[in-house]
Amino acid sequence: MLDVAVAYNRFKFLGDEFLTWLWYVIEQDPAIFKGVDPDLTSFEIGNRIVLEKRKKESVERITIKGEDANFEEGMLALNKGALVAELNLVCRTIEEKWQFTLKGESLNISGFKTPKIAPLESPDDLEGAILEKVFLYDKILQFLEKLYKHFIKLRTSNDWQNRVVPLIKKWMHSS
Amino acid sequence: MSLLSASVSITRYKVEGKLKTPVTETVAAALKKNTISEIAEQSAEKVSGWTSFEKPYQPDFHGSNFVYATYLVFALRIDKKTIPAKLIQKHFMIESARRLDESGRQYLSRNEKQIIKDRVIEALYLKVPAIPHVYDIIWNYEESALWFFSNLKAANEELETLFIRSFGLTLIRMFPYTAAQLSSDLSDTEQDILLKLAPTSFKD
After folding, report:
1. Which residue of B1, B3, B8 is the best one to mutate when testing the A interface, meaning the one whose CB has the most A CBs within 10 A?
2. Which end of chain B, N or C, is less surrounded by CB atoms within 10 Å?
3. Total structural domains in chain B?
4. Structure pTM?
5. Per-residue pLDDT tens for A55-100?
6. What range defines the domain where residue B122 resides?
């Protein structure tokens, strides 16, 4: 395996491409999510997108945020060669909602909000609360892991250049 | 950041290697050996170690009180003392003036100034209280997976260092390359392709 620091920097573009692909799939091919986790009723962009255009010695950064944000400006940035560097996402099942921000270069998760769990009323409730939280985190982390696996399989196949990239370009230019 | 908080940050790791059985006892021994020590009386800038999830300020790893079903739940605590630069400067000036008075000289050498500064900092560290920072950990031993409830670079680096020192196991952070290489079930051919990938151009 490559040295960790080298691998981190050399392949951080994969994380940004993953998030850009996620945005495309959310808008154009949401059936993929159903295939990954049939429990999810929706998977949407949340309240924040950060786009970055990397140049040789600098990075242009555009942040779009707000509950009713218009992402047209983000699409314009994609057209100019930027990629998604951070994405706030919302997942829903029939009764529950999760929201979190995924960072491309590290795949770190921040602002991770799960459905509420019952308040702790006694120390005896602690184990149940921990296990419930673990279950709620795990549902989304496994979903993301499967999505990333799907993306990487695609990214290392001929299908990426031959089919997916032209479709993403078409979407970028038609929006 | 507590794993029970309304909003958390998570860094995912893969744990490389296996522990000596019985695992619970091996983990308990490692946690006890590397439990955080109080630094109130020490002149150290920073002390880190493991602490209990339930009682982060009174660490206790007796029996299997850190095991919840199949998960090992504990925390990393980093106690750090911070001294404002202006406070160091104030005490340095006072001590330098006193030294000049005593010696009857007009100047101190660079070496003397450094010694005074080091002593001032050491004395201040003894007086300043340490600020504790607690970061929860969930370790799914069977799945070789660990969640660390922070994205802070310094906290993650501290975790990685203390983890290998305590358990003799390496933590591999899951970022785009490692997640592709270790968790995506790639064939040998796909692994070779992965190593040669270059950024995609989406511009016409």
Report:
1. B8
2. C
3. 2
4. 0.90
5. 777 888 999 988 777 788 888 888 888 999 999 999 999 999 999 9
6. 85-127
